[in-house]
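Quick illustration, no need to memorize.
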Amino acid sequence: MTLGSETKTDVEVPIINGKHEIPQEENDSGHSSINTPDSSEPDKQVDKFVKITIQPSCGDAFELHLSDNELVQELYQTLLDREATCHRTCFSLYLNGTAVDNYSEVRAIPGFVDGCTLNVVDEPYTIRDARLHLRQVRELLKFGLTEDQHEPPCTNDAQSYLTTINLQPEEKKEPKPSDILPPDHALPGCKERSLAHLLVPQPKELIALKDIAFSPYNPPPGPRKLRGDVLYIDITTVENRIYHVTCCTRGFYVNNSQDGRFDPTVSNSNKTVYQSVIELLQNVSPGFKKVYPQILKRRQEKTLVERLPTSYPVSSWVGNPLKTDGYMSDSLRAIELTEPFRVGFEDHMPGLLRDWNEELQTTFEMTRKSISERVIRDRSYYKIHADYVNAAARGVQSILDGNILAINPGEDKKTHMYIWNNIFFSLGFDVRDHYKELGGDAAAFAATSTDLQGVRAFATLDDPKLNTLGMAIFDYRGYRVTAQSIIPGILEREQEQSVVYGSIDFGKTVVSDEKYHELLEDAAHKLKMLPHTVISEKDGVKEELKLYTSYEAKGIIGNDGRKYVLDLLRSMPPDVHYLDDAEVSEAAKTLGYPRKFPHKLSALRRELIDAFCESRLVTFIQLTAKKIRDLITESKEKNDETLIKQAAEAETELSLLFMAISEDKEFEAKNKVVQDAIKEACAVVHSIYEDRYVMKFNPDCFSSNVKHAPTENLERQRRVVVDAADFLLTQKIPELVQNLKDCVVQPIDGDNLADIMHINGINIRYLGEIGKRLENSVSFARPLVLSDIVARSAKHVIRKINVQITADQLSASTSHILNCLFSVVLDPSPIAANVAKKANKKNGKKRVTSAWSSLTTSALWNSIREDSASYYGYPIEADSLEKFTELHDIQKTALFRRICKVMGVQLVARDYQLDNSTAKKTSIFVEDDIINFFPIIKHHEPFTADAKKMFIRGQQAMSIGASREAYECIGESLNLMTLVYGVMHPDMPQCLRALARLSHVLGETGDALNNQHKAAVMSERLIGLDAGNTIIEYINLAHFAFGALLIPGSLRPLYRARYLMNLVFGEKHPVMAQIDANIGLILFTVQEFDTALKYLQSADAITKTIGEPRKLKTGLISNLIARTHAARGDFRAALVAEKETFAIYSELYGPNHPRVNESSEYLRTLTQQAVTFQKKMLKLDNSTNITELFQAQPPTVTSLFDTLNIINGILIIGVPGLSSLGKQQNGTTEESKTTDVAAQLDNETLD
């Protein structure tokens, strides 16, 4: 198969980003029958797969299989990916002698048919083409270099550790002990927490070229332009020879220029004009000719998942230290990264700047009636949004580096606003006292997050007539910067002239517009916002106006005629628990609510509102149905025909009511009995209206700034909001806490915990409430929750310090702050104080000493305690971090990692010995440890709803055991994601993981391993090398590698996962117990009994320590420990372990279960073996065969693999492919039959 074919295949097969797991979609997101066809595809166009031939301008022709709906531009990318053509960039595609349009679909090309031939024709160079060509040359040569320390810490070039692990064994080679036995840092009980193992090992550098630069003789003078000169380049080869090269319209050639003398004519020694710089270098530099093929080989060894850039910027909190001797010069990089006016698209886009708002709105409004139209629309919108976020990230870093001038430079720095690359940037401070009554800067900071939540909510409505702004939030170096697209004409008008809906003076004056009413009515209904009437007063005249949203939301009609809605910070109802003057439930009062909070913009999450409304609807249906059932029962008991008739009529009308509710339609009951039942149920569930069920929220009902009309029943409206907040406090939080105690959910780090809280509709500010309910438990989640409270409180404190720090003090201040946290700093920083003192004396001016320089350990810890109490409502009693971590068994390295990640700090990966008592009195961190800062990015993340629906259908199929149907649904979901997102996206790892598990239970081991490998690589690159989701992917990968009998390949990911768990959390976690059980079982399989016993005992000890309920897997681990002891000859210990197994099975299943009987039988066998062993030991002589002393039969590999399936949460019947290994080890013949299997992919379902 040709390389081009491989490229297209790699894109189309299921390839595997978990900020994040795919959450369950809203009500209309696929909760239909699994086999229900999609009836909304009247004009679905069937895509065809065709075979074409491409004839490059260099090299042989090759065939390519592709879908006819692909863009011609993708064929260009295919040519740039091929080894033979990747170095040629200036060309066009021709069909039958006619140039092909780049941006058209393949099937739209005139004359295009299956089997046709496209010819590649080299085009004349322009300066734009020349610059793009040099960029491609630089990208190709980068594959031979190690990590580039010049790149910003927030880039699209993430690395993967898994690519350095060889899962496949070398042929005809037995695995060495070093391939099987664990490294020291992966042993149970290891105290080493070095970050050095976290980094990806770098291969040997392949340097093909020293430098390539634009010549100082540029641009070509007029006479030379007229002869075709485009650009002049200076190239320094590895032989230290400098070649002066002319780029002309025909290509590149060596010219006669020398140092100090300009002569761009063709060199007498080399008169050839080459189509690319690569071809030129291969002819003039022997070193380049030797190394370049090795670079290409290294590039081709990487799959698309490993080498393609990520859609959104990613960053790492650790990196290699700066090495001056390895700091290579790169003139092209120097130009690109030191010119702040460059936006990164000049060479690609026509015109000067991109109109982000126009691109975002145009793609958002594209038709979406059929699946093919939705795929094209989603792909276009996602691509432009990703480009927008990347551009905004670059702009934010340039702004805080001081490289971009504010549009209001004369005002205070906190009020500065910026426009760069058609993006509007503002800082998260309270300018002009806009949020003075709501909390000042704290409210301004929070308003951006709640506004983004509103944008996300409105974006899910898919109403093309209602537009929102492109928006992204960046937390960088202590600042919060908001990036927004610009509404056409907004900068040319006053705000009063622009706003046609909402209020610009905090609710005193409100304007409304019928056009917006029509658009907002449906949006408000879907978002459960209650339309309400307010009183607007202007010039002494009062007027009643209807609002469908909060008064804070503003409607603006842009010059492009589009209707925009912005300032959506009050799209969700307020959280009354954090409003001082609000009424709360009695249960909330007993818990200390309402309580003071830094701001008054706290809002409930949309997930909570959906769950609350669903709960109240269920209660309403149950109450009304009970009323009618009681009537039916009464009529039957009395045998009264009149009552029987009334009951039948009521039952019929109630059925119509329930049908109307399910279809989200209004229904007016006419039956008196049904009316009474509805009124009684509405009174219980606190419906907005007395006579019909309506559960909607007035976002302004607790606002003191706006006046409601007398017709509004504020008491009922407020009651519903209070009930929703009470539902959060009395049901959702206790439910989550119990799930954490029972290990039903197992978050690994703070990011996982935040995701789980958000999925359950719980805001992060309730961390303290969860912490209070866990602080006296032995749950694994206790140290995780409490350490996250400390980390987030530290972030709040340090943020206030960082905004006062100048750029030249960032390294010193950050290292000093970290020393104050993790070592003992009794006195202010002497270095900073001396520097400030000398500067003040020299300048003769009064200068305030930096806030960080006077910071000590006790002062910083007290500030953290104060923030924890005020923000999270969690009082920290410990008077130092040291005592706090000891009291709650928190690992310092895990806390250190979390603080660095939430601060956005990148440090040198080394062993900081935070748990070393001797290091506490000295400075652990120095300035050289601080590498850089990176922005933490939040943005609206577009998604493909069709793919999510198919994934949910696949999950439903899995839940009923329809494995093949589930595989098809999830595979289709992954194909849709690939069409929309490309090769990588955060939602893809979950799909690939599910496909891998389904392949595994269906007996397709190779597919399972392939899919899971892609999932793990994608998780590493998109979520993080040490992310919680990445650890889970490693465990699954090891499972499937063991299924393929790749023993070293299964152990290496597990050792990596154990090291990461030790770093990210510590040992006392159920996932660590799972990892140790996996390692112990695999080592037991290869008869490394001593090492296996360490891991199995560790797994058992962890399970008991964290109070995990006894389950099937607990008994299996005890049984494995018993068998390992027996294999080592320690029958007494084996009996003790097996007795525990018997007790667990008896407790779980009762006395007559097969597992109980099996354990009882094994106990008898062990007892007999122990007696026999003792007798033989007493008669031991020189003629005794040692192997005869051990009569216990080890379990088959098939049974061990069944055990591994249960430990990892997979129930599988029949394991094909393992019988051969079982025969080799046990000398037995077992039939392995492939049976129809049902997959239960949830740990708790198994137990």
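Confidence is low (pLDDT under 50) at residues 1-44, 842-848, 1212-1247.
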